TrEMBL record:
Record keyword Membrane present: yes
Stated name of the protein: Septum formation initiator
Family annotation (InterPro entries): DivIC (IPR039076), FtsL/DivIC (IPR007060)
Keyword Transmembrane found: yes
Keyword terms of this UniProt record: Coiled coil, Membrane, Transmembrane, Transmembrane helix
Top-level division of the source organism's lineage: Bacteria
Coiled coil: 74-101
Source taxonomy: Bacteria, Bacillati, Bacillota, Bacilli, Lactobacillales
Membrane spanning stretches: 42-61
Length: 137
């Protein structure tokens, strides 16, 4: 009989005690194997979770970039719409004015040098053009 020096307990080496020790060793081995399986399963689950987080993270980033681009296009188109509306308003005003006969005659006389019978038109240089000639430009 071997005696354990630490706690002064001796073990009986019978067939039954050997069988119990073998079961304990087998249980310990099974526990170690179960721990390894659980660790592998844990790492697999964490890996799948990380892949999903990365996938959805990339999707979110792409969506935000697309949203910014769309917002920039919306702002650009709104500015363009404002200018078109302003131009449209000016053109409608001009159409209204062109329906007035007095204004229409004034525009035709100025733009196309149209004159009434017996009338002479003199074309004078503009002030900025005459300054350019004086300054040598």
């Amino acid at each position: 009989m071997a005696q354990n020096r630490e706690n002064n307990v001796s073990h009986i080496h019978t067939a039954y005690s050997k069988q119990i020790l073998a079961r304990e060793a087998q249980n310990a081995s099974e526990r170690q194997q179960l721990i390894k399986i659980r660790k592998k399963r844990f790492y697999a689950i964490i890996s799948v979770f990380i892949v999903f987080v990365m996938f959805f993270g990339v999707q979110i980033i792409q969506s935000r970039a697309s949203l910014r681009s769309t917002d920039a296009q919306v702002v650009k188109q709104e500015n363009k719409l404002k200018t078109v509306k302003s131009t449209n308003k000016d053109l409608k005003h001009e159409v209204k004015l062109l329906n007035n006969d007095d204004y229409l005659q004034k525009v035709i006389r100025q733009k196309y040098y149209y004159s009434k019978a017996g009338e002479t038109i003199y074309n004078l240089p503009s002030q900025s053009g005459s300054l350019d000639k004086v300054n040598g430009k």
